[in-house]
Each structure stands twice: as C-alpha cells, then as structure tokens.
Design goal:
Layout lengths: L1 E5 L3 H12 L3 E5 L3 H8 L10 H10 L3 E4 L2 H7 L2 E4 L14 H13 L4 E5 L7 H16 L5 E5 L9 H6 L4 E4 L3 H11 L9 E4 L1 H32 L3 H9 L20 H14 L5 H13 L2 H9 L8 E5 L14 H11 L3 E5 L4 H7 L6 E3 L3 H4 L5 E4 L11 H7 L4 E4 L6 H6 L3 E3 L5
Parallel strand pairs: 1-2, 1-4, 2-3, 4-5, 5-6, 7-8, 9-10, 9-12, 10-11, 12-13, 13-14
Bound molecules: nicotinamide-adenine-dinucleotide and uridine-5'-diphosphate-glucose (UPG).
Length: about 450
Amino acid sequence: MKVTVIGSGYVGLVTGACLSEMGNDVLCFDVDHSKIALLNSGGVPIHEPGLAELIHRNVAAGRLRFSTEAAAAAAHGVLQFIAVGTPPDEDGSADLKYVLAAARSIGQHMSEYKVVVDKSTVPVGTADKVSAAIADELAQRGVELPFTVVSNPEFLKEGAAIEDFMSPDRVVIGSEEPRAIELMRALYAPYVRNHERFLVMSTRSAELTKYAANSMLATRISFMNELAELAEHTGADIESVRLGIGSDSRIGYSFLYAGCGYGGSCFPKDVKALIKTASGHGQSLRVLSAVEEVNNRQKHLLAKKAKAALGGTLSGKHFALWGLAFKPNTDDMREAASREIIADLLAEGATVTAYDPVAMDEARRIYQDEQRISFSNHPLAACQDADALLIATEWKEFRNPDFDAIKDKLRQPIIIDGRNLYSPAAIRQQGFTYHSIGRH
Ligand SMILES: NC(=O)c1ccc[n+]([C@@H]2O[C@H](COP(=O)([O-])OP(=O)(O)OC[C@H]3O[C@@H](n4cnc5c(N)ncnc54)[C@H](O)[C@@H]3O)[C@@H](O)[C@H]2O)c1
Ligand SMILES: O=c1ccn([C@@H]2O[C@H](COP(=O)(O)OP(=O)(O)O[C@H]3O[C@H](CO)[C@@H](O)[C@H](O)[C@H]3O)[C@@H](O)[C@H]2O)c(=O)[nH]1
C-alpha cells in the first residue's frame, strides 16, 4: 500500500520504518529540512534500538523515502498518517497547530481520495477539526474531493518502539467509514495476529482511549510513589508491597515501580492535556490532578534526600549523577527527572558531574551555557571527589557496578538511588549510606 507519514520524529520514523518493513511503499515527509537531509544521507536523528537498521534496510530496498516536498507527500499515499508533535500550550492543553498545519497541507495538495490518519496524540474532537481544516482548504481551491479522517493513536514506548509497533497489544481505529476501516484493517493485518486486538470504535472514543491509557499508567506510578513515602514513614518496603499486589492477576506487576517520578514526552503532557480537556467541559479530574501533583513532588525528592544526607545544605557540595535520559534505552531527556534534580542541586549552590550511556550529547546541548555541570565519559570517573552519587535512570550498566571503586572515588560513601537498583542490606554491608525510594 502507498503510505505517507507526515512528521519524521519519533513516531513518524518508527511508523514509516515498520510499515515499509511489511512491504508498504512509504514516503516520510517533514518540514525540518536538516532532519530530512540527515535521513537522506544515511543518518538517524534519534536513538532507538533497531531503528537505524530497519530504516537502512528499507531505504536500500526502495520502500522508504524521505522528503520535504508537501505536494509529493500529499500525492504519494492513499493513507496520510499525521505524526507531528502535539506539545503543551501555555495552559497545558495540547497545541494542535502542527496537526492542523499538516491537515491543511494535505487539503492544499490532494487530488484524489485520501484517508487521513491521526497518529499524533490529540484531544477528543480533533478528528472533526482536522476534517474541517481539509474541507476549508479544498473549498479555497474550489474543488470537491472525498476524504476520511481516522483516529489511530500510537501506544509505542521509547526504547521498545519497534517491538511495540510490530507486535502491538492492540490497534485502535476510530472511524465509522467502512472503506477507511477496511484499508486500515488490511494495512495492520500483518501486525495484529489476534483479530480481537483490532479495535474499531468512534473517533472520539479512540482519541480518549489514548489519554486514558497514559493516564492510567501514570496513576499507577504516582499511587506507588505516594505509598513509597508511607512505606518510609511506617517501616514497610515498597518493593515487597509491589510484589505483594502485583501477584494479584487483576493488578499485575507492570508500571508499579516507585522512583523519582515519571518523565518523557508523553505522560506529563498527556496527563495535563486530559485534565485540561475535562476542565473545558466543566469537569475536574481530581484523581488525575493528584497524579500530577505527586509526580511533580517526586521529581524533587532526590535533591531533598541529598540535602538531608549532607547535613542540611547543598551549597558547595559536588554530586555525581548517573542517568540523564527519562528512562533507559533512549537519549530522550524531555521532562526527565534528571532535569529537575540538576536544577534543584544547582539552585542550592551545588555542582554536578553527570554520566549517561547515550544521552550525553543531548545533555551537552541542553546545558551548553551552564558552567556548573560537567560530563564524564565513564560512570566511575563521574564519582571522583563527589559528596554523593545520585541515580536518576535505571540503565542496565548501573545494576552491578564496582562498589569498591565507587567508594574510592567518592568523598563520602553515600548513594541516593531514585530507581531502587540495589538491595539496601547488601549495599550497606559494602559500607555505603544508602537512600532509595520507599525502602529501608
Ligand atoms: N514519542 C513517543 O514515544 C510517542 C508515542 C506515542 C505517541 N506519541 C505522540 O505522537 C506525536 C508525535 O510525537 P514525536 O515524539 O514523534 O514528536 P517529535 O517532536 O519527535 O516529531 C515531530 C516531527 O513533526 C515535524 N513536523 C511538525 N510540523 C509538521 C508539518 N506541518 N509537516 C510535516 N512535519 C511536521 C517536526 O519537524 C518533527 O520532526 C505526539 O502527539 C506524541 O504525543 C509519541
Ligand atoms: O513502573 C514504572 C514505569 C515507568 N516509570 C516512568 O514512567 C515514565 C514513562 O515510561 P514509559 O511509559 O516506559 O515511556 P514512554 O516511552 O513515555 O511511553 C509512554 O508514553 C507513550 C507516548 O504516549 C505511549 O505510547 C506508551 O504506551 C507509554 O508507555 C519514565 O520516566 C519511567 O521511568 C516509572 O516511574 N515507574
């Protein structure tokens, strides 16, 4: 099938690469000329396991191309995927300017039937706005052409994006138009082996499903983070509690890890946007507001623990920080807990040496004007003369470090672990003062 993907960011590239892998003829379009130039010269702008290989293979096979030509993009696919960003507005609601610009671009250039697929995460009612934008462009051109707008939210996780796209838990299609539904069913047939996992519903239900999924997952995390605090007060261990409740098949183990807060380009923005959608309808989402509040507090916890561990002041102290990405296997630092931790430490007069296996280029870009943070190419070297080691991301390589070497490097053997990587008893036996989340 001929497919155009509008937006060659995280979701656009994964979508384009995975659709071409199954034999579709895919054109990825982006208004960012430097990004397309990079892709056309064999580069891949994001770190995602398996993505570069997939892109290179399908480009070589002639099934995947990149372009900045809006007219060529609109002409290419009968399916036009919109996968552009929906960042938060100043008030927290999703900013639709990129989505509507993409819709208008289709309307300006299309010359035959198109199925326009909203893959971006968009608030309830956006499919109607996309429809109106395309219809408006067609009217301005004085032409009448058929098109259908379908909602097809994306549920991939960064770091496991290819696998999530290739073997999805479900594919959600919001449409009531049989022709469009059949095209989508044919496109996704190789990926969705269990037909019950191809869920067709109204566009509005599909749009809300995406926010509901992310909000539910964020709720589980904040719930556990709040209980972790209670565990600290009461002498319970949040890890034991996680195992105790996760073994109930109605609850399950996923997304119950307490830590230094959820980040990334999705949970914080989508929780905010859903709260905003509800308030636009005169409804207050009280549970979700608490989820956000708990998460905001959680991101400040590591600096608070560091301050308490170092006698009540951070001024003049130096810290090693392991982990900058918002989670492992990505270089993405959007809304990462590390950013709040760094901000808190610097604000109180401390300095930081940070290490991350893949996010250091991104961090150097973010902190290019900041003298009080430096970077080390080795986790051990980052610990040199630090008053404590802080851990913000659970990269695999942090799980079994050389504790003796860490102790030699640190000024004081203090570890403040925002991801509960080590056994508190074992690490204390090694001579460390160890602070984690919700454990003793
Ligand atoms: N990143 C994720 O893990 C993830 C997962 C599921 C859903 N989503 C959602 O998917 C959407 C895209 O997210 P992302 O992380 O890929 O964003 P991104 O910021 O990585 O990429 C967006 C791309 O769209 C391009 N763009 C903007 N306007 C354009 C236009 N008019 N025409 C062509 N290209 C245009 C930008 O130049 C950019 O390259 C968002 O709504 C996001 O919430 C993201
Ligand atoms: O038990 C847990 C699980 C996750 N996290 C944190 O939650 C954040 C988000 O993690 P994750 O969901 O794995 O990453 P994303 O790539 O942001 O993926 C989420 O957001 C995407 C964009 O909408 C969705 O498509 C995915 O289904 C959804 O999982 C990260 O900071 C994690 O450290 C925890 O603190 N505890």
